[in-house]
Amino acid sequence: MRKSLLSMAAAAVCIAASASTTASLVELTKFEKNDFTRQAVEKTVSARFAKKAQKVAAASETASMDDILGEYINETETYYEDPVWAGGSVTVVKGEGENEIILKDFPYAGCQTKAVVDFATGTFSIPVQEVYEHQTYGKMSIAPAAISGGQLVADRTKAITGQFIPGVFLIQKYGVFIDSGTYAGYAWDGFYETYISEANGVMTNKWYNNMYEDEVFNVAIEADYDAVDSVWVYNFNNNGMPVQMKVSEDGSVSIPQQVVIDLSNVNTSSTYSTDAVLYKGIWSASGYQVAQGDLPGTIDENGVITVGQWGPVATKRSTGGLTLFGVYNSSTIVPVKKEEPSAVTDVNTNKTVASVKYVNLQGQESATPFQGVNIKVSTFTDGSSAAVKVMK
User: Fold this and answer.
1) For residue 158, what pLDDT band results from cuts at 50, 70 and 90?
2) What is the CB neighbour count within 10 angstroms for residue 157?
3) Spatial CA neighbour of 326 closest among 3, 6, 16
């Protein structure tokens, strides 16, 4: 019994039903779990985890509360035999208690998990606490986890512990466990290693025919040091997965077909025989189809990436048919520069704000915030400027 991707799976069922009545999906090559896409993901995520572990281990500087607040992404490897890469967006805010922080949307969307940080040692602790309530199985708590007798069990006598430096939190060996009832003590989810890393961008998905509200979440954009013409976007589509993009000098972007949702060994694995792979879309008023090939897009002078119609597609185990996990008209990825405290809030500087403007994800500007996600751009009297993501 595992919570991962429950809401997404429910959405996929609705989308699949819609697809069968409005349009037929084109016949596609089925992707197997051991193909190059999965190998590339595992190699990339493992290397990223290793680098972050080294960074945390080598850290010697001390942080302050302001250093660790902000927008992050959650990249997690599960506790099970075939690791599942999962994750999402996380926001770290100040809590009410001394040195208390709240990890919003961790471990699941909608959760608000409390933690206490120790700035002198670069460590933090997450007390055992209720984080989730299921309509059938009831309340569930986050707690340290270990394997005993082949089962994942909770140790509710102590807190989860982790390490941090500015921009990175490392958490290991924990889970979410059912609190009471017939299944009390059962593991709903088990996590072997989690990195909560600072985000530097925002991704927005616009649904086909406005069937759902726009999805907005954090991403991390990094250059690919092994290939000068590509970048990696981490937490693409808000599932903790990295996606590689090819960038050309003429401003064009292409995204090769690759895994965007890891469906192995989660509650969906009995239903789907493959991971969900990115396919470009062919949408019309009468319905939608998907097709093989790279997903085209553009990148502008500000680094904003825009791609066209696409959807994640997985193969159903029972029929061999295809299921869409999303039907998007377009997606945009907007880089966001973290606002340094000295730019606006540090009273020891002589900088004075000359003007402020707000830019929405469509590039429109206003003197007042738009509804939703905004990029707030402050210009100072010395000609410098600072930008930060804000919500209204």
Assistant:
1) very high
2) 8
3) 16
